[in-house]
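Morning run. Coffee first, then this:
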Amino acid sequence: MKRGQVRQGPALEAALWGVPVGLLGGLVGLGGGEFRIPVLLRRFGLAPGAVVPLNSVISMATLAASLLFRAGALSLAPLRPHLADITALTAGGLAAALAGAGLVARLSDHRLHQAILVLLAGLGLLLIAEGLAGADVRLDILPAPGAARVTSGVALGAVIGLVATLLGVAGGELLIPTLVFVHGLEVKAAGSASLAISIVIVAAALARYARLGRLPTRGQATGIALPMGAGSVAGAAAGAALAALAPASALKLFLGLVLLAAAWVSARR
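And here it is:
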């Protein structure tokens, strides 16, 4: 099989691969792109250039379904006091997604990649420690509400957007810790906010791929994206139900382990 061709096989396999990633999205608020990419590369034999736009299409389905199911299982009311911060992060992430390709080309050297891996691992360990201790860590470094706080939020969103572009993911791995540690959201609310922000960022990325003519082919869409997206929707429903029942400390422990796994998967790419 030539590199870049879709491996022939039942759509059921693609759907089954989508379920655990959708479960992750519904449970903690991630698109799961870093876990999906190795599957698309190695199991389905896609070329690297085809993986990122296809992953973005499936991520959009996962994120949208996860947010929809979480809105039904969890109250979104805790997000209201933080709407200004969420909007600022979204604006920064959107700007990075639209203009990030050229910037990342100049930033994406080996040292930057290693720094990102260290950051993911460090945040994972911090969340695990916080979950075990039952404490709430808040950095409280942002200015009081006002223009300076909005500017700081936009800057944070831009940094996260650049990192997400570099890794080819939606950025929830960094959005959730930022919302928890810096903006003071509870971990369940942070997961829902992360999904909403990531949807905007991924939509911008898809628009960019459309302009560049890099959207998935019909064979990739019907053979992989559609069934894997359907599996992700089913997983997202189960994950949202679990999120409503799981204690916050357990979610922090789980998210911490996910971040460590994301660092390990990214290191192998």
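The CA atoms of residues 205 and 211 lie 10 Å apart. Good start to the day.
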